[in-house]
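Issue 218. Parser rejects a valid record. Input:
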Amino acid sequence: MRRYGKNPDEDDIRVRPNRKGNRPRTHIRPKHEDAAEGMVLTVDRGRLTVLVDDRVVMAMKARELGRKAAVVGDRVAVVGDLSGKKDTLARIVRIAERTSVLRRTADDDDPYERVVVANADQLAIVTALADPEPRPRLIDRCVVAAYDGGLEPVLVLTKSDLASADKLLETYATLDIPYVVTSREEFTDGAELARVHELLDGKVTAFVGHSGVGKTTLVNALVPEERRRTTGHVNAVTGRGRHTTTSALALPLAGSDGWVIDTPGVRSFGLNHVDPSRVILAFPDLEPGTVDCPRGCSHDEKDCALDAWVADGHADPARLYSLRRLLATRERREDD
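Output the parser choked on:
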């Protein structure tokens, strides 16, 4: 019995007719060299909205991408109908390499991580100073996720008319995290909004926060043409607000080339995916001191070389305390 390769050249080969009349399958995939570049704005049940030039195009992921999924903020290559007209559909054929990734797991025991946002420059951690009360452990977890994913954390503290921000800011002083404090009474005069706007200008910023802290209200003020329903109330018993954002959404920052990515309110932020060796990269004054650490050092054990590094005056002891506090968040519940 004769067997032939993929490209036989013998004259006596019999070719089975194609009954369906379509083209035979091939292993050669198109390169899509004429694909347009775009940015993913939303993802909803397999349909994605993509900004291509000045048009918003509805698209779906091409089969050739396999299980690779696009998320809000991804830079993608798109082919097909790019007119943006109603009932048209394009295809995403490539996803560009990501510069940063915000990831989370359902809890610390969950091995499955999900990518929330890609290619953001900053993570704005929105926290109310009262109603609901601030949750420092949740803030810590968001800071760790930002450092791990290559984003710069930013603190946005709201409702300062109800409580002082001094104590909370003191907790994060050694981390040198940029911050802005807003109040409900003065936010409408534009001065506080301008300070927030300045912090976000020219950057892609993902917003994250517990439900009821005023995150969506802040986004609405920054992007007035994209008004969205704000939180109706905060539950007096649980201290939790109703979710008003159900999926991530990228919006252009008014009067700037920056972008705001609003994400759903979170009640937990699992860090099962975080590699402690990446968190230390956010502490350039401590990182050189890890050279003499034992292999696999958690940086919070008896033989950790950072203790000697700090004792020799190379870094502030408060910085080492802050690092270890952040690394310890994986062992603590965020609502402790």
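Fixed in the parser; the record now loads. The helical segments are 136-149, 166-171, 191-200, 215-222, 276-279, 306-311, 317-327.
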